[in-house]
Design goal:
Layout: H1 13-34, H2 36-40, H3 50-70, H4 74-99, H5 103-129, H6 141-152
Helix pairs in contact: 1-3, 3-4, 4-5
């Protein structure tokens, strides 16, 4: 039993998932620039220049998103993003879980930590399965992208 012809047969579901993930992290990255005051609250007090950290993380998220959407340097960017997510899970959310006395805030910190670690695992998988996109002489980026998609199927 083969696949029926259709537009979705041209893109594997994994590529669709990566594109959706990239859109989500782009939105979150932009949020770091739109409302940094809301995110400064999560920067640990021992880290100086909290606004700079918020903007830097926003930039990393946007760069990672563009990389995944363009299918360029996905392996490297995925590993950097996974490291960032694991760092946040342990430095921010685990710290909140261990130090907060309010039961609901502790539960929220725990859930955020688990969610961050799960996202890091997903990003590690994206990086581990990323295939470099080659552009040959005389070939446009769009043609190379279609060739890469056809090979991935």
């Amino acid at each position: 039993m083969g696949l029926k012809p259709g537009i979705m047969n041209n893109l594997p579901i994994s590529r669709v998932a990566v594109v959706l993930f990239a859109i989500v992290i782009a939105v979150f990255g932009l949020y770091h620039f739109i409302d940094p005051e809301n995110l400064v609250l999560f920067v640990p007090s021992y880290m100086p220049s909290s606004h700079i950290w918020v903007y830097a993380v926003g930039a990393v998220l946007i760069i990672a998103s563009v990389s995944m959407l363009m299918n360029r340097q996905v392996k490297m960017v995925s590993y950097v993003l996974a490291l960032l997510l694991i760092t946040f899970a342990l430095a921010i959310h685990l710290q909140g879980y261990l130090s907060l006395s309010d039961k609901q805030l502790r539960a929220l910190s725990f859930l955020n930590m688990i969610q961050g670690l799960a996202l890091a695992c997903c990003v590690l998988y994206i990086g581990a399965t990323a295939k470099p996109r080659a552009v040959t002489t005389g070939q446009t980026v769009e043609q190379a992208s279609m060739a890469h998609t056809a090979v991935s199927l």
